[in-house]
Write a structure and sequence with these properties.
The chain is an alpha/beta fold. It has two domains: 151 residues, Aspartate Aminotransferase, domain 1 (Alpha-Beta Complex), CATH 3.90.1150; 238 residues, Type I PLP-dependent aspartate aminotransferase-like (Major domain) (Aspartate Aminotransferase, domain 2, 3-Layer(aba) Sandwich). The chain contains 14 helices and twelve strands. α5 packs across α9.
Length: 403
């Protein structure tokens, strides 16, 4: 058998595999691992969403093939969300499509718009599909810093467009950012749209964490910029907002050509999500939103317990303004060993699993991502374990001395 296939050759070994293997081995021995590694919500969807799902299950027609574009009611519900939340009008027939999670949508759009050798601009560090969706499609990448503060981002963007051959087809942006939790304002989006319209570059925005924010300022949408739909499409998801990650419901909205291209590819690949799931997702978007407020409050509480606890232990840990992640530089005494070795040591000696930052791109070296997916009791236990871990390595005293 030949395992040297072209697209597989372009995929490096999965960075998280080594840590995941150690985690599984530890659990097999009976160790109680506190797992911050994956952004996997631990709460169920709201009761009214589950009730609508159960109701739809009893409709005999609901078990037939669905449609890859999404049922009309769901696309209308997405349009209603954009109108309420962002003041943006979305045509549910031509400017909206349902995806099997935002990950599938990004990957299939990459297949639709990329040719081998095309140049795509992607952030680093970033959610892996932002880069590898296009790598699988055969494209070449130029990386931009995820950090948007100051002029560095736009200086790098201008240089990337000036020196890229061929000219970039598209740019991927993701704010609030996974993994860094950084947020941007409408002025940033305005500059992106002006620049990319001038250079004929599509803008692909991942807004999966639009509703997971803590500072009272809801993250904006790139589609709020006048004329953005001329070149931009935006991906959103039900996974984090409504605790529906396993349901695989996401959306793309915006530019008609991009939506049509994505729809054409999807029509060959899937029949859409199970209809009762789409019906329940419609109920989530159209129904009471108290569950979203509760989700936000839950992650805020967990964030504060984790960040305050780590800082009190001597681990300098910034508080994220959004997302369900904490993006933390590894403590100074451990930086020479590299983030992969630090993550493995933390798992082996403190029973705490984290995601090594290098798994999100080379610029993630020196950082770990901690998902707020354990309850506050277990977060406090993790903090105690980490404090003891730092003390055993003499790092607690050294960190306290340098503070």
């Amino acid at each position: 058998m030949n395992d040297d296939f072209y697209r597989i050759r372009r995929l490096p070994p999965y960075v998280f595999a080594e840590v995941n293997a150690l985690k599984q081995a530890a659990r097999a021995k009976g160790d109680d691992i506190i797992d911050f590694g994956m952004g996997n919500p631990d709460q169920p969807p709201a009761p009214h969403i589950l009730e609508k799902m159960q109701e739809a299950l009893h409709n005999p027609r609901a078990h037939r093939y669905s449609t890859s574009r999404g049922i009309p009611g769901l696309r209308k519900a997405l349009s209603g969300y954009y109108e309420r939340r962002f003041g943006v009008e979305i045509d549910p027939e031509a400017e909206a499509i349902m995806t099997l999670g935002s990950k599938e949508g990004l990957a299939n759009l990459a297949q639709a718009i990329s040719s081998p050798g095309d140049t795509i601009l992607v952030p680093n560090p970033s959610y892996p599909i932002h880069a590898f969706g296009f790598i699988i499609a055969g494209a070449s990448l130029r990386y931009l810093p995820t950090a948007s503060s100051g002029e560095e981002f736009f200086d790098r963007l201008r240089r990337a467009v000036e020196y890229a051959v061929p000219k970039p087809v598209a740019i991927v942006i993701n704010y609030p950012s996974n993994p860094t939790a950084e947020v941007v304002d409408l002025d940033f989006y305005g500059q992106i749209i002006d620049f990319c319209r001038f250079h004929g570059i599509y803008v692909l925005s991942d807004l999966a964490y639009a509703e997971v924010y803590f500072n009272g300022n809801p993250p904006p949408s790139v589609l709020q910029i006048p004329g953005a739909k001329d070149i931009a499409v935006e991906f959103t998801s039900m996974s984090k907002t409504y605790n529906m990650p396993g349901w695989r419901v996401g959306f793309a909205a915006g530019n008609r050509e991009l939506i049509a291209a994505l729809g054409r590819v999807k029509s060959y690949l899937d029949y859409g999500a199970f209809t009762p799931i789409q019906v329940a997702a419609t109920a989530a978007l159209n129904g009471p939103q108290d569950c979203v407020d509760e989700m936000r409050a839950l992650y805020r509480e967990r964030r504060d317990v984790l960040v305050d606890g780590l800082n009190a232990s001597g681990w300098d840990c910034p508080s994220p303004p959004a997302t369900m992640f904490v993006w933390a530089p590894i403590p100074e005494p451990f930086r020479d060993m590299g983030v992969m070795n630090f993550a493995k040591l933390l798992l082996q000696e403190a029973d705490v699993a984290v995601a090594p930052g290098v798994g999100f791109g080379e610029d993630g070296e020196g950082y770990v991502r901690l998902g707020l997916v354990e309850n506050t009791h277990r977060i406090r236990q993790a903090v105690r374990n980490i404090r003891a871990f730092l003390s055993r390595h003499g790092a607690h005293a050294e960190l306290a001395k340098s503070a």
